[in-house]
Structures are given as structure tokens and as C-alpha cells.
TrEMBL record:
<feature type="binding site">
    <location>
        <position position="255"/>
    </location>
    <ligand>
        <name>Zn(2+)</name>
    </ligand>
</feature>
<feature type="binding site">
    <location>
        <position position="261"/>
    </location>
    <ligand>
        <name>Zn(2+)</name>
    </ligand>
</feature>
<dbReference type="InterPro" id="IPR027417">
    <property type="entry name" value="P-loop_NTPase"/>
</dbReference>
<comment type="function">
    <text>One of several proteins that assist in the late maturation steps of the functional core of the 30S ribosomal subunit. Helps release RbfA from mature subunits. May play a role in the assembly of ribosomal proteins into the subunit. Circularly permuted GTPase that catalyzes slow GTP hydrolysis, GTPase activity is stimulated by the 30S ribosomal subunit.</text>
</comment>
<keyword id="KW-0690">Ribosome biogenesis</keyword>
<keyword id="KW-0378">Hydrolase</keyword>
<feature type="binding site">
    <location>
        <begin position="165"/>
        <end position="173"/>
    </location>
    <ligand>
        <name>GTP</name>
    </ligand>
</feature>
<keyword id="KW-0699">rRNA-binding</keyword>
<dbReference type="InterPro" id="IPR030378">
    <property type="entry name" value="G_CP_dom"/>
</dbReference>
<feature type="binding site">
    <location>
        <position position="253"/>
    </location>
    <ligand>
        <name>Zn(2+)</name>
    </ligand>
</feature>
<comment type="subunit">
    <text>Monomer. Associates with 30S ribosomal subunit, binds 16S rRNA.</text>
</comment>
<dbReference type="InterPro" id="IPR010914">
    <property type="entry name" value="RsgA_GTPase_dom"/>
</dbReference>
<dbReference type="GO" id="GO:0042274">
    <property type="term" value="P:ribosomal small subunit biogenesis"/>
</dbReference>
<keyword id="KW-0862">Zinc</keyword>
<dbReference type="InterPro" id="IPR004881">
    <property type="entry name" value="Ribosome_biogen_GTPase_RsgA"/>
</dbReference>
<dbReference type="GO" id="GO:0003924">
    <property type="term" value="F:GTPase activity"/>
</dbReference>
<keyword id="KW-0547">Nucleotide-binding</keyword>
């Protein structure tokens, strides 16, 4: 007889999962099985050992310093990409997160936190209106005055969401605002892991209030990087380009120099904002550097 469980946290060769009846179980995982991720559905045997990793819908991850894909969590419905005036992101950080999310097949939602601080008149803040026009959602929150939290909570209901963003933008503050009894969950988890006080050092799946969904808090990185991929894969991160590329004269158009390019025509017509096209060019360049390193 096996028990179904959801992985909450995994590190090195250990993980903690919550069984369908609410029991927390710590287990080592054998090398023959792939490393489980927060959000993974698993089967445990009678001795509470990992028996099987059930198929995943998707994974979200980042590129490591060698450009390899490093998975962070699995089975997500959406990512919350948190940005804030402090620490201000580099111009491409948001575009990388949005692209990564789309490439992983997960809907991104932009969260502008710390709205109590003045918004700098620079990228990506001055690009948010253009992104909204392209269909991206932007939710404005402030943890200091607890504003915008209810609106965010509504978007999380019944879903599994991952909260990502630069270190210090307020991810954990948002998780705390969304989950009043987070301390209790964290305490219970620390008892099982024996890791003691818990800071955000690894991704962790938490229950939203009244079982209305799951939320993954992740440790912030300073500069989020993409992994090595083909130009074709990268293009999936810019879905607004795909439709326009139907109009390209050449099937293998690179959307850079060719005559009759549908993507560049859409940029010139203002259908695709110029800042998106330039961001895509920079990420393409970045890819060329990754493949050389
Ligand atoms: N002014 C202001 N400060 C905030 C707000 N939300 C969070 N902070 C502060 O920002 C700092 C960082 O918050 P955290 O929640 O720890 O940030 P984090 O994204 O979890 O950081 P890492 O775990 O390092 O990735 C703390 O000092 C918070 O008090 C906000 O809405 N406004
Ligand atoms: Mg944190
Ligand atoms: Zn083209």
C-alpha cells in the first residue's frame, strides 16, 4: 500500500512531504530516482520511503552559472514575479523572468511591491503600461500598509503559485501577509527537518489559508539568469512575437535582418513595443555568450 504525498521542500538528498491526510514525512531519496521538487506529487511506501515520483505538468527553474537549467519547483499554475523600487532590478531582469515563465509553460503575473516608495522613472517600471497592453497582469502591493494583498490573494485562490524575484523585494513579506499562520507551518516543518530556524534558503511549498491553494516561497537571487536554449525556444518566451512571425516572408526568418519580417513590421507599427523587441535582442545576445562559455 502506498501513500500519496506532496513535496514541500527538498535539499541535498533529503525532502519533506505532506501526505494526503496531512502528515509531514521526512525521507531520503534514492539516487535511482530523480530529485523531487517542491510541488511534486509522490508515492511513499509503508516505511515512508519514496517509491515513485508522479509525472509533472511543468517545472520552473533558472540557469546556473554554466547556463544549465536548475529546476526550482514543479506543477505550478502561475509565477508571481516580484519587482520593487528597492532594490531596483537591472533592465532585463523582468524580461528574463517573464520569458522563463512562458518557456516553462506557466503564466506569469507581475507584482509591483513596495508601492509606498516612489516609482523610479526607468526600466522596467516605465514598461509596465506597455506590458499590460500586451496582456500581462500587474498587481500593486505594499506590505508596510498591507495594501493590494486581498487582490493578490484572489488571484491565488485554488492555484499553486511560485513567488520569485530579486533578493530583498519582499517575497517573504508577501508570503507572511498572505498566510497569517505561516510561523506555525514553518515551525512544524523545522521540527521534521531538524534544520532549526528557517530562513529562505531553499524553495518551500506553503498552504494558503483554508486550503485555498499552495504558494512556493523561493530564496532571492541577485541576478536571475536564463539557461542555454535555442533561438526558437527563446522566442516562446515572447509569445506576442509568434503571431507576428506568421507574416514573415521567410520561414527561417531570424527577425533581425531579413526583408519582409512580420515581427519587425509589428514593431514598426507599434503592435509590439520597441522595448520588448530590444529586450529580446539582448537576451539573444546573452544566449550567444552562454553558448560560448
Ligand atoms: N517600504 C517597504 N518595504 C518592504 C515592503 N515589503 C517588504 N519590505 C521590506 O523589504 C525587506 C526585504 O523583505 P523580504 O520579505 O525579506 O524580501 P525577500 O524577497 O523575501 O528577500 P530574500 O529572501 O533575500 O530573497 C524587509 O526589510 C522588508 O521589511 C513594502 O511594501 N514596502
Ligand atoms: Mg525571502
Ligand atoms: Zn521575421
Amino acid at each position: 500500500m502506498s501513500t500519496r504525498a506532496t513535496v514541500l521542500e527538498a535539499w541535498a538528498n533529503r525532502a519533506v512531504a505532506e501526505t494526503v491526510d496531512g502528515r509531514l514525512v521526512a525521507f531520503h531519496f534514492p539516487r535511482r530516482l530523480e530529485r523531487p521538487l517542491p510541488g511534486d506529487e509522490i508515492l511513499l511506501n509503508e516505511r515512508d520511503e519514496l517509491d515513485e515520483l508522479l509525472p509533472r505538468r511543468n517545472r520552473f527553474g533558472r540557469g546556473d552559472n554554466r547556463g544549465q537549467f536548475r529546476p526550482i519547483a514543479a506543477n505550478l499554475d502561475q509565477t508571481l514575479i516580484v519587482i520593487a523600487a528597492e532594490p531596483a532590478p537591472s533592465p532585463d531582469l523582468l524580461h528574463r523572468y517573464l520569458a522563463a515563465s512562458r518557456i516553462c509553460g506557466i503564466e506569469p503575473i507581475i507584482v509591483l511591491n513596495k508601492t509606498d516608495l516612489p516609482t523610479p522613472s526607468q526600466a522596467p517600471f516605465d514598461e509596465l503600461e506597455g506590458l499590460i497592453e500586451l496582456g500581462y497582469s500587474v498587481i500593486r502591493t505594499c506590505c508596510t500598509h498591507a495594501s493590494g494583498i486581498d487582490g493578490l490573494a484572489e488571484r491565488l485562490e485554488g492555484r499553486t503559485s511560485l513567488i520569485a524575484g530579486q533578493s530583498g523585494v519582499g517575497k517573504t513579506s508577501l508570503v507572511n501577509a498572505l498566510i497569517p499562520e505561516l510561523d506555525r507551518q514553518t515551525g512544524a516543518l523545522s521540527q521534521v527537518t531538524g534544520k532549526g530556524r528557517h530562513t529562505t534558503t531553499s524553495a518551500r511549498l506553503c498552504h494558503l489559508p483554508e486550503d485555498s491553494g499552495w504558494l512556493v516561497d523561493t530564496p532571492g537571487v541577485w541576478e536571475y539568469g536564463l539557461w542555454q536554449m535555442t533561438p526558437r525556444e527563446l522566442l516562446r518566451g515572447f509569445p506576442e512575437f509568434l503571431e507576428a512571425s506568421d507574416g514573415c516572408r521567410f520561414r527561417d526568418c531570424s527577425h533581425q535582418h531579413e526583408p519582409g519580417c512580420g515581427v519587425r513590421a509589428a514593431v514598426e507599427a507599434g503592435v509590439i513595443p520597441d522595448f520588448r523587441y530590444r529586450a529580446w535582442l539582448r537576451l539573444l545576445d546573452e544566449q550567444a555568450r552562454l553558448s560560448r562559455s
